[in-house]
Amino acid sequence: MTETIAAGTPFAVSVRDVNMVFDGVHAVRDATFDLERGRFLTILGPSGSGKTTLLRMIAGFGKPTSGEVFINGLAVGSVPPHRRSIGMVFQKLALFPHMTAAENVAFPLRMRRFDARTIPDRVQRYLDLVKLGRLGDRRIHELSGGQQQRVAIARALVFEPDLLLLDEPLAALDRKLREEMQLEFRRIQRELDVTTINVTHDQREALVVSDEIIVMDHGRIQQKARPEATYRQPNNAFVANFIGVTNFIEGTVASVDGERIAFERAGFAGRTGNGFRPTAGASARGALRAEQIRIAGGREALGDVDTVVDGTVTDAIFEGERVVYEVAVADLGEATLRVFDHDPVAHSQHDVGSAVALGWNVKDVLVFGD
Amino acid sequence: MDALEAIAAAVWPRSFSAAVPWLMLLPAVVLVGLLVLGLWDMADGSFRTLDTATFLPSDDYSLANYHRAFTERLFFTVASRSLIGSLIVTAITLFLAFPYSYVMVRTRSAALRKFLLIALFLPFFIGQVVRAYGWLIILGSQGMVNEALGLVGVSPIRLLYNYPAVLFGLVQYMLPFAVLMLAPALTAIPEEMESAAGSLGANWVRTFLHVVLPLAKPGFIGAGLVVLTLSLTDFAIPAILGGGSQDFIANAIYDQFFRTSDQGMGATLALLLVAVGSMMVGVVFALFGAGTLAMGRSK
Q: Is B200 in contact with A82 (Cβ distance < 8 A)?
């Protein structure tokens, strides 16, 4: 096995063919990726997808069954966590309850034998960075959930680690605070330019904070791409389904013309997703985002779209900034499509049971085989 | 159901419901009340000296017994032996109990955890006296240890009827109590804390010193108090493994009550033991808090 990748590698983290098997469960399969310095990567996946296991191997809390993790080009397989230069924010934060906020932040400096005279200044600097400047003397249980998050971030960053790891620390927060902290993570990461790997099952968080997203399922990396590409060009049906609200329309392929794949159902077509090239007669599914579908009382009101179907509203949910419709479409084998109408004030609202027309463009339908 | 409820309502009307918590306390109140009655009786006895002519307690009250307890060499020896002994036993027991509890709580192997638990509970089924006799068989001059030593040409060593033998027996007796008191405190420390200390740069020694030990403090206090009070007041181990030469306070009290029949002196010693024990517990509470015995309340 190679001990180094290359001197002067631009990659803060490289993961090569990493597998993790414990208790007969293959938690991570053949994970390989590179992460450039200073970037914010989110590993996104449902619970049990192996994302936390992968993160813990990077931190050094689990040794890969096979494969190797490189940090700054050096293999770290035999380096224990306390000798890696990694700051980690844990799921339950793991702040030390017998210390004050400032003592918690000073802890890594003391353990890493920083010059004792510089410690108070540095602790104050990082408390200021996370906007806790005057709360250093508080005990952990005297701080609010959001303040505790900030202490945990300061503690993970104060010793200027090469890498910051976030193990779903926001999962337990209520939505408003979680969204606030997401932006804080982003701000601090940009300010310090520290390479960051974040683990979450929250697709919105992944889209908001990341430079890059890795989507995992069943221990495998499904896709690694920039947030917008992950959303617009999902690699497969799993990614399309996990991020965003996606309708899947199943059918039999009638003809393939370059990128365009036509189904046997009247007028339904899409373009190939991820290079999928079926032959006529094969079964396939078209993925169509709920916000790509236009809805109107009649076909003529839809405007310029190249696919139009008729349907009946089976449910209408008012969510404030949008209305979510469930529409049964007879022409698509009684498929129920979910449709977002993002301008419910300007548009007319459709009651349950009313007949509507749906329209979309062929380019927005991605066809997958799985 | 309605009939049952009607009967219940007749026996215990709803308006009595405020009294329910007190009713639940009743057994405890009765028990403690009886104890107080007994103590009161002993307090009365402690002020009466033994009339050596009639072997009956005197009718008049005096502080003579207390004077004897504080001045006679024998009582001082016994008291200091018990106090120092219980402190040493507490220190050694906690030192040994910690790694045992830690492995039991943290091991990933369910089989090892079960083994450690069974090994812990087995001595409870045997009883203190039988166990002490077991030590006689093992440590006696013709016991297993000396026989083994004889095989390598070492002449028999006197392992019994001395102070170390008593302390050894007490540590062995106290270990399960200490482990049982420590284990919940260690369970309450999330494993993530130790991982966090590791990622922040602490090796296992410093993780132990700066994180595990301080967070396990309540367990140490609880376990320490239990071990201290139990070994301070123990009777069987000093009696059997000390062979009469290593009496603790409880043995002295026994002698006063049942050998010399000086109930007044026995009562005096017993009350002093209660006082000393309570004071030690009080000092620990004042210095360190009540630990796990605080039942999760900080005050």
A: yes
Secondary structure class of A30 (helix, strand, coil): strand
Extract the runs of DSSP E, i.e. beta strands, from A189-306.
Answer: 195-200, 212-217, 220-225, 246-257, 260-263, 269-272, 283-289, 294-296
Residue B299 pLDDT grade (very low, low, confident, very high; cuts 50, 70, 90): very low
A149: phi then psi, degrees, rounded to nearest 5: -55, -45
User: How long a stretch of residues is chain A?
Assistant: 370
Average pLDDT over residues B262-274: 92
Q: How far apart are CA A240 and CA B20, in angstroms?
A: 60
B215–A97 CB contact, under 8 Å: yes
Same domain for A309 and A335?
A: yes
**Is the same domain home to A210 and A311?**
no
CATH number at residue A33: 3.40.50.300
CATH number of residue B190's parent domain: 1.10.3720.10
pLDDT of B15: 76
> Among A271-280, B211-220, B252-261, which stretch is predicted with the lowest mean pLDDT?
A271-280
- Asked if the Cβ–Cβ distance from A94 to B198 is below 8 Å, we say no
- Which residues on neighbouring strands pair with residue A289, listed in sequence order? A246
A155 within 8 A of A107, measured Cβ to Cβ: yes
The whole-angstrom distance between residue B275's C-alpha and the CA centroid of its chain comes to 15
Strands (E), A201-279: 212-217, 220-225, 246-257, 260-263, 269-272
Judged by CB atoms closer than 8 Å, whether chains meet at B215 and A107 is answered as: no
pLDDT at residue B174 above 70?
yes
- Domain final residue, candidates A211, A237, A263: A237
CA angle, A363 as apex, A360 and A367 as ends, to 5°?
A: 100
Q: What is the mean pLDDT of residues B71-93?
A: 95
Which residue range is the domain that position B100 belongs to?
75-294
Among A90, A155, A159, A162, the residue to mutate for chain B (most B Cβ within 10 A):
A90
How many whole angstroms separate alpha carbon B122 and alpha carbon B52?
47
Q: Does the beta-carbon distance from A159 to B192 stay under 8 Å?
A: no
Residue A358 · residue A309 · CB < 8 Å: yes
Partner B contacted by A175 (CB < 8 A): no
> Does B57 map to a domain?
no
Closest CA–CA distance from residue A159 to any residue of chain B (Å):
8
- Report the C-alpha gap between A359 and A331 in whole angstroms: 13
Question: Closest Cα to residue B232, out of B117, B123, B79?
Answer: B79
Q: Position of tokens 């009886």?
A: B34
